[in-house]
């Protein structure tokens, strides 16, 4: 595959796309749970609806990533998917707000969320594949650090915006419950409008500005079955995908149920009133987490290129897991802030260090023409945890008598189980230099 070397223009274009997609996922993480709490108090029901993201992401990126590898188009292999997905995702974000504002029933609101998840996943694999398509192996850690930085900056921006609007709504209405105050003002629509603008604008930017390298000739293409079979047969790919599933499941336990965790720790129960009371705090804590992720992302990319893939991933995983072990004993807001801040540093290192792994393994095994399908599977192993965490996490909480705190040690255990898999990957630190 022909490349032009490291290009800051390409990296920043991909980073902008990552920023926009992160605003979309942050909108979902920040507002969907409290909005669903207006319909039901069941952790299992809310978790199952939010888990639809994982179910959709389990199949769509795998299939469309596979087909994008062989797409013959003057517009490239990835950009047509990015354009279509970005436009639909922006429209879907507006539909989620409209559905809630119109007072649709629970099933109707769940369907609009499902359409949003589908739209976002239409171009997940193609977005991921563009980086190794355009950046040489020895430069991917640096590129990953920048892209990860902007991705999590998107989360920070959206959480900060929503938190600011809730504070403003509370001041104007006198309502103590943040999400209820926001719903009583015109401010509720703002995060949805801003997210839609970013999603559509970034997709247009990448489509018209970022140029893909010439597509390689694929002489012996794999069938879909052969592709899936090859992943199972290659132990390095299998170990990495399994490890990623575990650490993302740990993350999703906290991300999906953060409001319930906060309400339980601070008020003793996760009732609708208590969850809505901690919405503003939850958004600010998500913003804090993302700030520390940003602080960990760039060093994580540098460590990946300079000090080794295996060490950087394990270091990030351990820093992320340790505050979760402490989480079982946390009782105050200050302790929550410290734990999430430290965990964010580890998560930033882990994300920057893990993103380039698939591209480097494909370089090692001379399969770089297939980045779409392998990053499609990469995304599936990030989506499966959403499905599992939403359903299993909700069930665990209900079985534990609404004790959301139990998710902390379970999440830490999952991360620690993933680390030996990374340590025993044979080709992790072997990649061709650009």
UniProtKB/TrEMBL annotation:
Swiss-Prot/TrEMBL keywords: Membrane, Transmembrane, Transmembrane helix
Keyword Transmembrane helix: yes
InterPro entries named in the record: MFS (IPR011701), MFS_dom (IPR020846), MFS_trans_sf (IPR036259)
Domain Major facilitator superfamily (MFS) profile: 244-434
Family matches, as Gene3D superfamilies: MFS general substrate transporter like domains
Name listed for the protein in its UniProt record: Na+/melibiose symporter
Keyword Aminoacyl-tRNA synthetase attributed: no
Organism ancestry: Archaea, Methanobacteriati, Methanobacteriota, Thermococci, Thermococcales
Membrane-traversing stretches: 48-68, 80-100, 146-170, 190-210, 245-269, 281-304, 311-330, 336-362, 383-400, 406-423
Coiled coil feature spans: none
GO MF, one example: transmembrane transporter activity
UniProt source species: Thermococcus thioreducens
């Amino acid at each position: 595959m022909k490349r032009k070397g490291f290009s800051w223009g390409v990296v920043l274009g991909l980073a902008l796309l990552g920023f926009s997609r992160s605003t979309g996922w942050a909108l979902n993480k920040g507002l969907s749970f409290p909005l669903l709490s207006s319909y039901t108090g069941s952790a299992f029901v809310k978790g199952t609806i939010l888990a639809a993201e994982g179910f959709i992401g389990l199949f769509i990126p795998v299939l469309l990533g596979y087909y994008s590898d062989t797409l013959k188009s003057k517009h490239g292999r990835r950009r047509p998917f990015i354009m279509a997905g970005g436009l639909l995702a922006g429209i879907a974000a507006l539909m989620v707000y409209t559905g809630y504002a119109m007072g649709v029933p629970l099933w109707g609101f769940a369907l609009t969320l499902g359409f949003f998840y589908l739209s976002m996943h239409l171009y997940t694999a193609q977005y991921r594949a563009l980086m190794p398509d355009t950046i040489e192996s020895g430069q991917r850690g640096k590129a990953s650090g920048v892209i990860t930085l902007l991705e999590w900056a998107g989360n920070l921006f959206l959480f900060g915006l929503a938190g600011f609007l809730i504070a403003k709504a509370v001041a104007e209405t006198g309502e103590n419950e943040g999400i209820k105050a926001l719903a009583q003002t015109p401010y509720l629509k703002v995060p949805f409008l801003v997210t839609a603008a970013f999603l559509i604008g970034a997709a247009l930017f990448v489509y018209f500005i970022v140029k893909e390298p010439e597509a390689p000739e694929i002489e012996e293409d794999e069938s879909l079955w052969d592709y899936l079979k090859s992943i199972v047969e290659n132990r390095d790919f299998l170990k990495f995908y399994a490890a990623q599933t575990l650490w993302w499941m740990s993350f999703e336990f906290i991300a999906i149920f953060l409001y319930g965790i906060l309400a339980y720790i601070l008020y003793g129960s996760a009732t609708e009133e208590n969850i809505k009371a901690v919405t503003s705090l939850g958004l600010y804590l998500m913003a804090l987490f993302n700030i520390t992720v940003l602080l960990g992302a760039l060093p994580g990319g540098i460590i990946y290129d300079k000090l080794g893939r295996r060490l950087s991933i394990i270091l990030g995983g351990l820093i992320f897991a340790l505050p979760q072990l402490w989480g079982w004993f946390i009782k105050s807001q200050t302790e929550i802030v410290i734990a999430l801040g430290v965990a964010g540093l580890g998560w930033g290192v882990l994300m920057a260090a893990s993103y380039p792994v698939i591209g480097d393994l494909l370089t090692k095994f001379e399969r770089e023409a297939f980045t779409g399908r392998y990053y499609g599977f990469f995304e599936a192993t990030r989506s499966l945890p959403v499905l599992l965490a939403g359903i299993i996490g909700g069930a665990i909480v209900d079985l534990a008598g609404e004790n959301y705190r139990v998710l902390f040690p379970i999440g830490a255990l999952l991360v620690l189980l993933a680390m030996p898999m990374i340590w025993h990957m044979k080709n992790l630190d072997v990649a061709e230099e650009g």
